[in-house]
Amino acid sequence: MYISMSRGFPLFAAVLVIGACTVTSEQPTAEAEMIEGFLAGSAVRYAVQDYAIEHGSLPASNADLGLPEPEAYARGALAAVAVGDRGRITLTFNDRSGVDGGTIQLVPIASDALYGMQWDCRTASYEGIQSWAPACRYAPAEQ
């Protein structure tokens, strides 16, 4: 029996949920809204992985996955969840995140039978991302 769920993602999600649970009323609302948007958008990773298993390639759009348009995911600080070339997922946030148009990218980097699809999480928009999403990294845009 083949399990299509990545073993790495549940650990990543657990760390993120634990981080989300530490958000108190003293912390910025923007951070709490970004965590909520990040979790919602991150669920798309399962659809990308399932597509790759079924088709032997990575999707290039939300439509390839049978998902709604990117803007349909808008809620709180999250403005859109777009699947792009080679399964790259771009989470776009609005001004409620502190950076209007700020993005976080989830990029599939490897896949194997034992661990499933592995992901790189990076952003050029949110320098403090590791405070609430330890598996993500800040990568400033090249000038």
UniProtKB/TrEMBL annotation:
InterPro entries: Pilin, Pilin-like. Gene3D superfamilies: Glycoprotein, Type 4 Pilin. It comes from the Bacteria. SUPFAM superfamilies: Pili subunits (SSF54523). This is Pilin. Pfam families: Pilin (PF00114). It comes from Allohahella marinimesophila. Belongs to the N-Me-Phe pilin family.
